[in-house]
Amino acid sequence: MYRISIDSLRPDIILGKAIINDSGAILLNKGVKLTEFYIQTLVKLGYDSVFIEDEDTTDIIVEDDIKEQTRRKAIKHIRALFSIPIENVKEVKRFTINEINKEIEKGRIKEKFSNSKSLKNIASLSSEIVDEILDSKMLSGLVSFKRKSDFTYKHCVDVTVLSIAIADKFLYDRDKLTELAKGCMLHDIGRMLIDKNLYEEPRKLTNEELELIKTHPTIGHITLKDVAGIGILASHIVYQHHEQQNGLGYPRGLKGDNSMPLPRKELKKNFIMPLAEIVYAANMYDALVSPRAYRSAYTPDQAFFIMKRLAGTHINKEVLKMMFEVIPAFPVGTTVMITTGKFKNYIGVVSRINKENLSRPIVRVMFNENRKKIDPFEINLLSNQHLNIMGILL
Question: If 0-12 CB within 10 Å is exposed, 13-18 middle and 19+ buried, where does residue 126 land?
């Protein structure tokens, strides 16, 4: 199977991977033969790509990093938690940040959270996700399919998966990883009281609107602190996940020192806590490789290139180094173009990853420079150092 854009879909193409909607239910299952109706539905819903199967790629299997059932449950419960204040305190959305804080402190929202079955389920799911990630040696590098609008719930799950994998490499114990998972799944909970149109409008926001968006870590922290079952660590991950190494992040302008975010690292005043540095990087990666209302998704290698330029100023350098050891720049099932050598401009699909070097995979070449189908053949980039590739979306 391999990934192609929605625009390239045609009737009778076989879907290679199930599409889970924003409620955690299966929208279209693996193996479904696409019809014009299905394709137009995906377009209207705002999906930008899917995995398909054909006779040349039946042996290329794209594995999810966690079980489909686990992912679906996580999305369902995150969505339920995000809906609590909206259903019960609708007028809050019209308040200023100070009024929102006062409303939260009154306890109505906290009470709803504390009594929510979904909150208890997220605590148990955090443990499940940690176990599933610890059982895998390397992440696939592929995030879930998100719509151009309202991608928040899936985003929270994908950030959780990546953050756990990175933190595990820095030798955090299972209990800390579980606390990290809770914080990641709830890291954007502060968005629940901010008009979601601000995240979905394909336009430049005003300074006032941008400042409002920057309040979501504070709103999330105030909402979650002192709530039974959340814990201090998780609530501070929510609070600090947009802080940068140079101190220019938000909401408090905390700094980083670009040292390894180890479990026993000393916590200094006005500095970002180590696990939040990991979440910052995971959050940025997932946001880049997901479609947004104002732009298409970047390919994983493009995301890595952007993040390398921000290493040291925005992203902890050591976290980024470890990320490159956890996820491949060219995941299995992604389409790539050869940019140098004899087969320049030929297009192929990544069929396997070389664990010795995640940026030099094995590519199954399937299309010539004119994008015409050819008899497939494979090139191992580890033994063909003169060949380079770039990610594309057919």
Answer: buried
Instruction: Give the β-pairing of 335-338 and 347-352.
Output: antiparallel
C-alpha span between 324 and 303 (Å, rounded): 11
Global pTM reads 0.91
216 and 282 in a single domain? The answer is yes
Q: Are residues 299 and 379 in the same domain?
A: no
Q: Is residue 185 part of a domain?
A: yes
| Alpha-carbon distances, residue 355 vs 18, 117, 137, 299 (angstroms) | 27, 41, 10, 20
Rg (CA), the chain: 21
Q: Residue range 204-232: average pLDDT?
A: 86
How many domains does the structure of the chain reveal? 3
Do 286 and 232 contact (CB within 8 A), yes or no?
A: no
pLDDT band at 85 (very low <50, low <70, confident <90, very high): low
Please compute, for residue 212, the number of CA atoms within 13 A of its CA located in the half-sphere on the CB side.
Answer: 20
User: Model confidence over 14-55: pLDDT tens digits?
Assistant: 999 888 887 778 899 999 999 999 999 998 888 888 999 999
Report the SS3 class of residue 215: coil
Asked whether residue 242 falls in the same domain as residue 141, the answer is yes
Q: How far is CA 257 from CA 203, 273, 307, 313, 365, in A?
A: 35, 11, 17, 10, 43
Residues 298 and 370 in one domain: no
Q: Judge contact between 291 and 147, C-beta under 8 A.
A: yes
Residue 320 corresponds to which tokens in the numbers above?
């980024």
Is residue 203 predicted with pLDDT exceeding 80? no
Please check whether residue 59 lies inside any domain of the structure: no
CATH label of the domain that carries residue 33: 3.90.105.10
Q: Hey, what amino acid is at 83?
A: S
CATH number of the domain within which 152 lies: 1.10.3210.10
Domain enclosing residue 357, as ranges: 335-392
Is 337 in contact with 393 (CB distance < 8 Å)? no
